[in-house]
Write a structure and sequence with these properties.
With 490 residues, the protein is an alpha+beta fold. The chain has helices at residues 2-5, 106-203, 208-238, 243-259, 264-301, 305-318, 323-343; strands at 9-13, 20-24, 31-33, 40-42, 77-78, 348-349, 360-362, 364-368, 373-377, 383-387, 395-405, 409-414, 421-424, 434-441, 444-449, 455-458, 468-473, 478-488. Strands 6, 8, 9, 11, 14, 15, 16 and 18 form an eight-stranded antiparallel β-sheet that branches. Strands 7-10-17-12-13 form a five-stranded antiparallel β-sheet, with no helix packed on it. A three-stranded antiparallel β-sheet has the order 1-2-5, with no helix packed on it. Helix 6 (305-318) packs antiparallel against helix 7. The protein folds into four domains: 2-78, no CATH class; 173-284, no CATH class; 302-343, no CATH class; 349-488, Jelly Rolls (Sandwich), CATH 2.60.120.
Amino acid sequence: MGQEQNQELISFNCPSCQKLLKVRQNLVGRTVKCPACMNVIQIPDSESMPTQPIPMMEHPPEPKPAPRSTAPISRLAPASKPAIKPVTGSKLASGRLRPGVKQLSPEEQAAKKKKTMMMLGGAIAGVIIIVLIAVFMSAQSARKQKELEENKRIAKVKQEQEEKEAREQKAQSVIKDVVKFEESVGVDYGSLLKKIREKKSDVKGTPFEKELAAKEDEVKQKVDVLRVVRETTRDFESNPKDFDRIIKQYDKLREDAQVIKNTDALVNEIEKLKVEVVKAQKKEVENVLASLESNVGGLMDKNQFKEALFECNKTFKDWPDAKSDIEKIVVKINQAQAEYQKKRYDWQVLYDGSATTGWDSVGCNLFIETDGLVIENKSSGLGFAAAGQADWQNYTVELNFKMVQGAVTIAVRFKAGEPSMAIPVARKFGSSWEKVTVTVKDNEMIFKQGDGEVKKVPVPDGTSAQGKVGFILKPNDKIIIKDIKAKLIE
């Protein structure tokens, strides 16, 4: 037994895990299990082991004799008490290079590191170039879209101008037709004068000849005035909005008729026709003003004040007699615009805790509880509720919410039926309130929930450019919100 204790110890690395093992020389050739990786290995002889020196302990403990068997090598003594972790790569667990691996000089290591940094820099430059190309392509697409819209606008303006010229030419043609028709009617009315002249021979030489001649002159003048009156009436029927010109023409016909003898009936008829035109003009002005106020009101609701003023200017050009009424509408527009600009960038409360005024929804029930506004989807499909203005583009929204069941998605620039920037809110159930802040500006959205980190995400292409604040819920989802407000940003 003393002889076995004096036997030399040999060291080798496990071929599977590279752990340094130390055994007695008399165990060479035996098959054992590695105590580290538990793989079956064969103890090599000293000739087949690497020639590199293996560090040994100065005074290793003498191993106990073991029977010759294939039992696990748990009795083998490690080279040192601290376990040497397996090392992958070009080095062994002992820190020495693997056989056949070349040790790089400092210059070679520096060159290799420089090459790696250059490859990394090239990759980063490639990514930057790709991003720049994408931005350029997006700008090009936007420019082309803008050019297309401008061409459409020019085409529309041109079409409107052509239609206006066509209407003016048609009106001019109608006037020429009226003049031509007036000439033809004059010939027809001449038939009556011809009849009178035919009868002149029957009264020639009698006291009635002079009276018939005077009657001939009187009838001729009356026929001429009546002919113009009828033409004026037909002219008004063809141009029901040309009130001023028709009224002036009736006034002139009345003056012409008053010169003729026995024309009371004719003057009364002309005055009656004129009164009908004045009534029609007044009614038309009322309709125009009512339509203008309706259009302007709709534009003001959308805060489109510039467009509302444009409508007033256009109406004034067509109806100058309605100037005073149009000026009153313009004053209202300017006042509303000044008030809007004053509070445009102030916080706007979307729920005051007492009413759901200004909210619209599809598939969701909105009702008020003590905690706040409850939004609940009892339908079988997606539901939504939204508040705010349809023309909002860049704005910040703040709210406190409490999940009751399911989950909710906040959608900024929300328009029903159109894709919006939707942000799923993290599910957090319980009685505690969670604060959410969402800011959307241009093509970027900033989102923060509770005390979490601020997240910036790009707005996907194809989403709405403007819209309200929306909440999207799946069937049976339920949420309570309070203190919700929004503010426009520059």
